[in-house]
Amino acid sequence: AEPLKVGVAISVFDDNFLTALRTGMQTYADDINVELQVEDAKAEVGNQLNQIQNFIASGVDAIIVNPVDTDATISMSDDAAAAGIPLVYVNRQPINVDMLPDNQAFVASNEEDSGTLQTQEVCRLLGGKGKVVVMMGELSNQAAIQRTKDIHDVIATPECAGLEVVAEQTAKWSRTEGSDLMTNWISAGIEFDAVIANNDEMAIGAVQALKATGRTMDSVVIAGIDATPDALAAIRAGEIDVTVFQDAAGQGKGAVDTAIKLVNGEKIEQKVWVPFELVTPANFEKYMR
Amino acid sequence: MTTHTATAPVAPTPAQKKRLPQEFSILLVLFGIAAFFEVLGWFLVGQSFLGNMSRLQIIILQVSVIGIIAVGVTQVIITGGIDLSSGSVVAMSAMVAATFAQDANWPKIIHPALVDLPWFIPLMVGLAVGAAAGFVNGWLITKTRIPPFIATLGMMVSARGVARWYTDGSPVSGFTESFAMLGNGMGRWAPVVIFLVVAAVFHIVMRYTRFGKFTYAIGANPQAARVSGINIESHLIKVYMIAGLLAGLAAMVAIARIKTAQAGMGLMYELDAIAAAVIGGVSLSGGRGRITGTVIGALILGVMLSGFTFLRVDAYYQDIIKGAIIVVAVVVDIHRQGKRSKKT
Amino acid sequence: MTTHTATAPVAPTPAQKKRLPQEFSILLVLFGIAAFFEVLGWFLVGQSFLGNMSRLQIIILQVSVIGIIAVGVTQVIITGGIDLSSGSVVAMSAMVAATFAQDANWPKIIHPALVDLPWFIPLMVGLAVGAAAGFVNGWLITKTRIPPFIATLGMMVSARGVARWYTDGSPVSGFTESFAMLGNGMGRWAPVVIFLVVAAVFHIVMRYTRFGKFTYAIGANPQAARVSGINIESHLIKVYMIAGLLAGLAAMVAIARIKTAQAGMGLMYELDAIAAAVIGGVSLSGGRGRITGTVIGALILGVMLSGFTFLRVDAYYQDIIKGAIIVVAVVVDIHRQGKRSKKT
Amino acid sequence: MVNASQLEAVSPRGATPQVKPYEYVLEVVNARKEFPGVVALDNVSLRVRPGTVHALMGENGAGKSTLMKIIAGIYHPDAGEIRLRGEAVHLATPLAAQEAGIAMIHQELLLMNSMTVAENIWIRREPRNAFGLVNHARMHQMTTELFDRLNIHLDPDAEVSELSVANRQMVEIAKAVSFNSDVLIMDEPTSAITEKEVAHLFEIIRGLREQGIGIVYITHKMNELFEIADEFSVFRDGHYIATHPSSDVTRDDIIQMMVGREITQMFPKEEVELGDLVLSVQNLSLEGIFENISFDLRAGEILGFAGLVGSGRSNVAETLFGVTPATSGSIEIDGQAVSIKTSHDAIKLGMAFLTEDRKETGCFLPLDIQENAQMAVIHDDFVKYGFVQEARLEKACLEISQKLRVKTPNMHECIENLSGGNQQKVLIGRWLLTHPKILILDEPTRGIDVGAKSEIHSLITQLAHKGVAVIMISSEMPEVLGMSDRVVVMHEGHVTGILDRADANQVAVMDLASQ
Ligand SMILES: Nc1ncnc2c1ncn2[C@@H]1O[C@H](COP(=O)(O)OP(=O)(O)OP(=O)(O)O)[C@@H](O)[C@H]1O
Ligand SMILES: Nc1ncnc2c1ncn2[C@@H]1O[C@H](COP(=O)(O)OP(=O)(O)OP(=O)(O)O)[C@@H](O)[C@H]1O
Ligand SMILES: [Mg+2]
Ligand SMILES: [Mg+2]
């Protein structure tokens, strides 16, 4: 039979996590003989809408979207529904997640867990007490906002009430900016026991800056999210203490599976959660591939 | 000594040879690219590229926003300037105007007192914000004499900052139905209609009005323009204001179409708009170029985008090829126009 | 009728007044901005801005990469051209070279046969990739006569595509210790040293060699340069190749410093590099500007970045202010240089 | 001044005068060059003997510059041969021509404005030290030596952009001389300089001639011809007409050959009944540039402005026209005090201003002839509701360009492709379209051939007849003296005297001009 044709609109290729998601998706699709057409919106919402409409014009069987702007999903949903093409959102929660048409779904990990898992582990390592600096991702990004909120939520619980956030700034998900931000903090004389970063890249940047000033890695707890290969290597080197594995490939695979089910008219759960997993020096080897 | 009959020095050939318009060569490039996709389409996908109404619609639809911006940018380039701020001005106008376009049912309203306003209010706000940004650009360029590249680069960075700051980076959605018509009305053709009207108006302005003639004159030789009695300062300010206004209009069409405004919108639009103009034969050194060329340039970009998806070209290769096509389009155009650019 | 003593028709002031170097005014701008942060620092943060070695280091460190690119871009701008491709060329060189810089212990090796190579091999690869991209730019500009803006815009788009395509978008990490020294050696001063050496070399090249004179001549008046016997084509190709090579070098320093290479690297670096040059007094219309100016321009950008973080300025405001400072720096520079631009 | 022994010190190749095995140092045989739509040169030949000044004459657009550019390796001929010192050569690039011993002063100034005088002169030939680095001190010294030799007073380290047009012209001359070439081409070297510099240049040329250099000299100034040229060749419409020793012919013969008809009157000045006072300027000053300029101008009067280069004549004109508004002083037009802050103000008051530098402040090079001609008139005239009245305008432009005998196929030719003289006519047309009451002409016949020059002169006379008041700045003494009712003489930003036609003669003017 003709292989299924699925159009995939990724918000931005230049993102390590989304690259893992994308390659996971591609590998899986190749295995089960599904043809993917992957597009890069370059973080621009208008581009993405155009790509989806181009998919519709080309008559794909299903569309998978990793939205640039989770508010923009209504018109995407409308367009796909009007053309009768099934649509799956992946990784980023669309604003209309609770009113999706029948042949649409959402596959992701629940961001409420990521920051929570991460901060709880930091809290445990510090014994519930200490000064924390927070490196935020790009502020327009829902995950950055949610993960930062998670941190504050955990600190608001009685067990971790001894934690105090002494500085909180954005390093735009980037290693270079993370490193520069950390250097600036250090030179501003800010003291802290832990760094909680919204992702691993910024955490690695912080490590590099800290090492440069001669601070020993045992004296500070560093936490990231994503469990990228670089972060796992840093855990092995004793530099990063905590990260959270978000199953990128799992989300990609889940999105393809869900799309196929929708094409076949199967009844499915409209929200598919792929769980987060805590990664520490005790279990990191499991995640090294 | 050879003998010569004296001829009158002025000999306007009575039957002036009608030359092909400059845009002709770039139009051929457009057709060439379209034909290329058509042929490959039959071979690789077994489908017609152009014989598909919804694809034709999306081709024009997706260049409408860039096209509207490019019309304004074309004027700026003809004066010998450049506008790098368009993309950021789009974002800024979009964010500000969007907060006036929300309907009362939306969970995340920015100004609770200002909901369900008629559609033209956010539209006016968007245009005004764009024009204001353009005014600042023009003012800086004429009064402080900094190069347009720098003035608009500064605006590019600052306007993006304003866009982010305005709602703390959160997107704004939930527009009234009437406002959304700007991007979806007329059977979804509204953006295209707006684009074509804008292009037609400015085609006429540039070719048949004093304003247009002065714009070319300034780009061709600002000092001579000044001696000819043209008030360069006020004219340039107008030109940059129009460019800003059109960026604002583009923003309104874009957000009405996608029904959300986001601070990251319009990233790199300035480059696409400039590329459309230059592919269309507008000279970056000023004084040369036409709106029709820019429209064709924008269409080339649109055909490329759709064509790639149609042929299922990998996103990686898309960029590689897109870069090459921009170059080739301009090369072909220059070589067809040939003679004019022969000078060292 | 007033009486006048007869003077020689042309009057060169006998005692030639030694003029201040052009960079003087922009140096004042740099000091002004630094002083501004210093004062605000004491008021708002209760700390010295400059009296902190590690901050001074990071200021220079974070501009090193942009600075190296900007040196190459400065040459290009002096010829009257522009290079929009630097950021993408950084990404492309980084990706390609990085796959030759991995050590054997890394879990995701790209070429398993090519690990633990000596540091200069990836370095050479990176430089070669950059120079090749520059060569293509120069070749396109001189042989097909397309404007530099278009040639390098095409390269910007294409090179980014190549960078993504090369490893399917996945980042490359796990560099050998020896390679990482390029970005971390000499007590982390390596990037700064490389930057300053590059700047010094090209300062000499531009001022004291024929190569430099030709570069200025081409930018000042290409026709005059041509009739003076300069081979514009071959010279421009060299200039663009050097710009590409330096982008490649910047890429090597950048990835060695952050120990990873990503396809998204270097985004917008071209604009920062151009901004550094123009802030430093390099004229976009060609023929004017110096490497020292560019270095100061880069430092202004670096001071701004650090200053904002130091004062804990909100990211939103950072952009707004950064845009304004770029403009103000150039305005101040132009007004201090004053007379030269008096002509209408 | 310059003498041969001084020049001997830095003598060119082949310095020792010896029997030369060739008669002509430069020969062009049957050259042809076609541009899209124009045959610029058709089967022309030119032979230049060493040690002579060979003048090349012809109307605007005759193909003189084109041939020179071929000799200098800038253009490639479609057919024909070039022989240097008797041998056929192929000059593929300007560099090849330079190396073959050809130097050229270009008609349009070709200097690198943002570089210094010294850098301009020695570009590609910079002295270098042991490390291969440019030796600036030596370069400065070489420039000073060159300038001393040529008696030029310029700062070698000055930026060219700071120099006046005349001084830039001198830099070009010095640069060309510095090559010590066998063939020196001078394409209208005197178009931007006054009599004094011209005399000086002729000294230089005579020195070079003594050294055996073959000089090709192009000019439209007939009076220069007999002073300096040994031989001359005439081109017309891209064709070779004739070559003669200058002793054999009269000036009228040459004009006859160039134009193909006779031009009886060079300066057709006619007595015109002067009308009312139109313009009255009192104590006009522009700080640092000129001071206390006062003069009156009547309808139908032609007021000449004479002075040395840099005396401030152009600056006064620019100020009158609002390009650089005055810092003090008053201007009255028709008895009304007026304030002229911009050129637009001036145009509205019925003024028109032909600037001296075609390329910098005159032409819109990328635009066509009509667009160039119409630019000053579409402020109010020819405009309805902001729309330009194309048809009316085209007719008017065509009319004026026919009247001025602009040589072009049609109104939509790009002005860039016209010869300099024809460009000048289009610019005059631009201002005539505005029907000015006061017409300011700054070097109106610069670079214009005799035929066109006399046309322009009779046009000026006609305008005067119609009651137009004319201010004419000119560095060509016969022109000022021949055309003016009165002559204002300027020196270093001051008016040193106003002479009536009867009192105005060469000596009187030069006296006032150099004080
Ligand atoms: N680059 C060009 N493209 C097209 N036509 C040209 C070009 N250069 C010159 N021409 C045409 O060739 C002819 C000869 O021009 P040229 O400049 O040689 O004249 P000229 O004798 O030097 O005139 P002038 O005295 O005005 O300088 C003219 O008709 C001119 O329009
Ligand atoms: N923009 C300017 N800035 C400074 N000095 C200037 C400027 N323009 C002209 N000058 C100087 O003013 C003086 C008068 O120049 P102007 O061009 O008016 O003289 P001119 O008598 O018309 O001579 P020319 O025959 O060269 O046109 C010159 O010394 C010139 O260098
Ligand atoms: Mg000529
Ligand atoms: Mg003058």
UniProtKB/TrEMBL annotation, chains B, C:
<dbReference type="Pfam" id="PF02653">
    <property type="entry name" value="BPD_transp_2"/>
</dbReference>
<keyword id="KW-0813">Transport</keyword>
<protein>
    <submittedName>
        <fullName>ABC transporter permease</fullName>
    </submittedName>
</protein>
<feature type="transmembrane region" description="Helical">
    <location>
        <begin position="148"/>
        <end position="166"/>
    </location>
</feature>
<comment type="similarity">
    <text>Belongs to the binding-protein-dependent transport system permease family. AraH/RbsC subfamily.</text>
</comment>
<keyword id="KW-0997">Cell inner membrane</keyword>
<keyword id="KW-0812">Transmembrane</keyword>
<feature type="transmembrane region" description="Helical">
    <location>
        <begin position="58"/>
        <end position="78"/>
    </location>
</feature>
<feature type="transmembrane region" description="Helical">
    <location>
        <begin position="186"/>
        <end position="206"/>
    </location>
</feature>
<keyword id="KW-1003">Cell membrane</keyword>
<feature type="transmembrane region" description="Helical">
    <location>
        <begin position="291"/>
        <end position="310"/>
    </location>
</feature>
<feature type="transmembrane region" description="Helical">
    <location>
        <begin position="24"/>
        <end position="46"/>
    </location>
</feature>
<feature type="transmembrane region" description="Helical">
    <location>
        <begin position="239"/>
        <end position="258"/>
    </location>
</feature>
<dbReference type="InterPro" id="IPR001851">
    <property type="entry name" value="ABC_transp_permease"/>
</dbReference>
<feature type="transmembrane region" description="Helical">
    <location>
        <begin position="119"/>
        <end position="141"/>
    </location>
</feature>
<keyword id="KW-0472">Membrane</keyword>
<keyword id="KW-1133">Transmembrane helix</keyword>
UniProtKB/TrEMBL annotation, chain D:
<dbReference type="InterPro" id="IPR027417">
    <property type="entry name" value="P-loop_NTPase"/>
</dbReference>
<comment type="similarity">
    <text>Belongs to the ABC transporter superfamily.</text>
</comment>
<feature type="domain" description="ABC transporter">
    <location>
        <begin position="26"/>
        <end position="262"/>
    </location>
</feature>
<keyword id="KW-0677">Repeat</keyword>
<keyword id="KW-0762">Sugar transport</keyword>
<keyword id="KW-0547">Nucleotide-binding</keyword>
<keyword id="KW-1003">Cell membrane</keyword>
<keyword id="KW-0997">Cell inner membrane</keyword>
<keyword id="KW-0067">ATP-binding</keyword>
<keyword id="KW-1278">Translocase</keyword>
<comment type="function">
    <text>Part of an ABC transporter complex involved in carbohydrate import. Could be involved in ribose, galactose and/or methyl galactoside import. Responsible for energy coupling to the transport system.</text>
</comment>
<dbReference type="InterPro" id="IPR050107">
    <property type="entry name" value="ABC_carbohydrate_import_ATPase"/>
</dbReference>
<dbReference type="Pfam" id="PF00005">
    <property type="entry name" value="ABC_tran"/>
</dbReference>
<dbReference type="GO" id="GO:0005524">
    <property type="term" value="F:ATP binding"/>
</dbReference>
<keyword id="KW-0472">Membrane</keyword>
<dbReference type="InterPro" id="IPR017871">
    <property type="entry name" value="ABC_transporter-like_CS"/>
</dbReference>
<keyword id="KW-0813">Transport</keyword>
<protein>
    <recommendedName>
        <fullName>Ribose/galactose/methyl galactoside import ATP-binding protein</fullName>
        <ecNumber>7.5.2.11</ecNumber>
    </recommendedName>
</protein>
<dbReference type="InterPro" id="IPR003593">
    <property type="entry name" value="AAA+_ATPase"/>
</dbReference>
<dbReference type="InterPro" id="IPR003439">
    <property type="entry name" value="ABC_transporter-like_ATP-bd"/>
</dbReference>
<feature type="domain" description="ABC transporter">
    <location>
        <begin position="272"/>
        <end position="515"/>
    </location>
</feature>
